[in-house]
Amino acid sequence: MTNRFHFKYFTKNNMKRQLITLFICAVMIPVISIGSILGIFVYKKTFSHYEDLARSQSRLVHSTIVSTSIYLHATYETVISNPKLQQLLCTDEPDYNTMEATSELTGLFDKTLTNTAMLTTLKLYVPANLMGNVEPNKYILPFTDETEKSRWYQKAVKFSGNFWTSDIRTGQNDVTYWELHYCCRIPIPEKHTYAVLLMSVSNDYLRSLISNNNYEIFLNVNEQPVFISSDRGYAGQEFPLDLSTEMSDSKTGIFTLFDKKTLGSFARVNLYHSSDKLHIFVADTNPMDTIHHLLIIFLLIMLLALSVSAVIIILYATYFSGRINTLRLAMYKVSNNDYEIVDTIRGDDELTATFQDMKIMVEKLKTAE
Question: What is the DSSP letter of 276?
């Protein structure tokens, strides 16, 4: 059946159509098929490469925050384990050296703050009625009406453990910005109350470690506003992704960011010694355009190669078909006793040889007549 189809096709169609069909079957279809496979492979490998980069950036942010939280918790343990703290706040002994105790504690705070680049604030807030033994200083302060309005204080009243929170802060020249705080509630059992150790993480410190011009980065704690972002103006706004419980704790792929498709990596992680959740979103807005441009260039190169080949094969088929028609016309004239043949087929191929043989035959016919 196959041989009959070949025979029927190649005997029922002219040479030009046969050559074009042969080009489509032997060149165009294989090139398009192989090119499509290569295009899909390149797309997947390139996309996977950008996914790995985004995931690595997300892990960098994660490790930075975790190492920061571990160090801050160690600072908390250093403060809470100092015996002078409970003595200073609770003693009623008249001969107790409050100045020495205050100096030792503030010296510890001052040394920690000076030697720790990640901290911008290190303060211990205590009830006002326990400040009687504390000498005036900038580290141990009483609860005030202003502190009681803050987000961290309102949570400390309800939550007995350590926790992370973000809150707005006013800096120099009345510039407001959001800052991440680690709040540690320190029990004072003798007085049946507590103090709160407040440590604020430096945004500049975090940016120096996690910033990357190729990525947009967003961080928040729990359901709170974004406290740090690659776009400084976005801090204080809602997290750009839906933080519903249906979202997995880790995902890398295509996200919709500000109504635009982008490649990114999301992570929800537990902070050290805390039940709080840190949300990390790293987005790269360029790779999709880059991948699409790469595929377009690949497609254009393939189309250009096929177009050039098609033009060449069409020109050749037209030329070759024209020579065959010329030979056919000459043979038709001879069959009708018209021996005036113009020598229009030149070259060294088989058609030229056939035309020359026909001319010899014509000369013999003329001689015979």
Answer: -
